[in-house]
Give the backbone structure.
Amino acid sequence: MAKPRPSIERELKKQVDLTRKNGSLNPKAIGWAREPLIKSAVTGSWLRKKKWNYWCIVSPEVLFSATVSNLDYIGMVFTYFLDRETMKFTEKTISKPFGKGCSMPENVNETVEYYDDDNLVAFYRMRTYTKIDVKCVDFGGQVLDVELNVTAPDEHETLNVVVPWTRWRYQFTSKQNCLRVEGHIKVGDRKYILKKEDSYATLDFGRGKWPYDSKWQWGTASGDTNGTNVGLNLGGTWTDGTGMTENGIVVDGKLTKIRENMEFGFDTSDRMKPWVIKSKDSDSVDLVFTPEYERVAKTKVLFLMSEVHQLMGTYSGHVTDYTGKRIEIESLYGSIEDHAAKW
């Protein structure tokens, strides 16, 4: 069994600004960290800035997601819900010209809030936890009411990466797996209770300036498998050639940063067939993702064209942590996506 190759990417250990005063990338920010040390004040370059806070919640009964984003010329707020037993799926998207009402803070652990007369999507940062509060009068013809509290276990590590394309095109991403969540999700008359013991939250925080034509694959999962708590974050295509990856695993709260690129094998004519995800330079990651549900979202608004195929399902196979220990993965629930955007 081969260990993952040691990361040659620079580990950041103190707070740093993502950008210089003129809005270009600060070279000192390029690298990765075990906590969100990067202050992401992204300014200038109108139409190129992309900012979002995406939350995904998983329990044995449900998958729920809520996002607030500002893409400069449009703000997009969306929520979706999947009942894992019945496979009933509901989604709502709100578009706001020029990002009106979608104000995005600089730092990861800050409050984000969108509201109008009929909707509230808010991520309130409290002293020791994040409160997710979502209200929607018309969610597929029903009322949606969500109140969840998300906490990180003590000394829990997360994946924080700055990806440089050029001096003026770059991305800071904070991927936080295996956060604990409790509370309720009510859809119409059905109320789902989430407990910390078996419910997980994942945060995808993004701030940067992107190329107009972008493509990526992204796989993520959080949960317990064979007595071990495992979080997966595996990405492809968008980081190629940058010298950085967004690849990492969290095992019982400890991060293993993976510098290798990932190969995503899937059938573009039928994405419901199993996917294969492997590390390119070793056998440190060797997984099969088996889809159970496919979400397809296509958007064409103003300058924005986007097509995402997001699959919900399970991972099986193995990953290897920084000590060389092989972690067997069996039916770990998560998602994977193939996304093409002109934005």
